[in-house]
Amino acid sequence: MLKSPLTVKRTLSTGEKVLVGKLVENSQQSFFQFDEAYLGTHPTSLAPFNLKADTSLQAAPREPHYGIHGVFGDSLPDGWGLYLMDRVFRQNAHNPKEVTALERLAYLGDRCMGALSYEPELDLLDEPTESIDIITLGQAAIEEFEGTESALLEHLMRTGGSGGARPKMNVTRLSNGEYTSLDNALGTKLIVKLTSEKFDLKHSESLVEYCYMQMARDVGIEVPEFNLIDAGNGRFWLEQERFDCTEQGGRIHMISACGLLDAPFREPSLDYVDLVKATRIMCGVTESQKLIKRCMFNYLTVNQDDHSKNFSFLASDADNWTLSPFYDIVYSPYKEHMTAFGGNGRTPKSALDQLAAQSGLSSKKAIMIMAEEIFEITRSFSHQAKHLGLPHTLIKEIDKHMVEKFNTLTG
What we know:
15 strands; transferase; 3 domains; HipA_Ser/Thr_kinase; five-stranded antiparallel sheet
């Protein structure tokens, strides 16, 4: 448990850091207090639905963010990053079960996703001074994920702090096109998504996600810039530009639906009707209608891993909110969607009127037009997937499943 307050800072798009407030904890819970000067220049909250924009001491809910407020919980990594962090704590004679969320934030310091950083930092690893070739580092991460401990722990920890249960790397692409694993390098910040035999789609996952990103972009949905990295032996990893980073070395404040609405992400807890309403309130009608399109894309492409951390919102330096680019979209056939449609986890058909009303659309007909446009774009999937070398049986399975979803919606 931290004995002294943890200072929260926000990096603006220009790279300037401003004091936001302080976090403290006792043996029972944690608390946050905004800095008065911050509220003078940023009168709206970092988390509009669950943090008051005043200088009162605000207690955090016990769940679902490890006993801290959701906007700070978003700074913590998920399965992969937490696994690496626990390895570091054990290596330094700390029992991970006794490490508090605030201590984890202190350890992360300024290596979090989004614009928030935490001081003073808790130093447990030496700062790497040399870059590791990203293919070598990625292969080490996959081996670690599959059960073989790597000697490159400090490099994996420095690059592996992004969200998600699966291994990823935060790296930088330099102006000469080369990659570096050093986090203070100037260039384009990327997330590289690795593959594994342990994934449902095994090493085909990045190729399928590449196709899905292309389809989303073709239907007019904003996605991060993306590409494939040839990892050798016929395997490819997906790289995506980080939308929380700016060219000037600054950051964009970001909050997930999980952090915004206190909606757990490891089990179904969210509904598109509520999410569309929250988007309309915070971002306006136009953004809520963009979310409808993403909702229908997820349904028609069988992306059922649409949990509350796979929707995020970005705030400009002036605290104007928009949807983040669309991300983590890949074929994931569960029995039901993680985010329901008006209480139904299988189909949005009965919720179309509600979704239209919450997003300011005149009727469900407008949503059906979106659905038809999306389905038409999905007809390109088989050709593109075949060109990338995906297995024929997998291509056939995905395409058949997409056709079934569209027929269920229109039948």
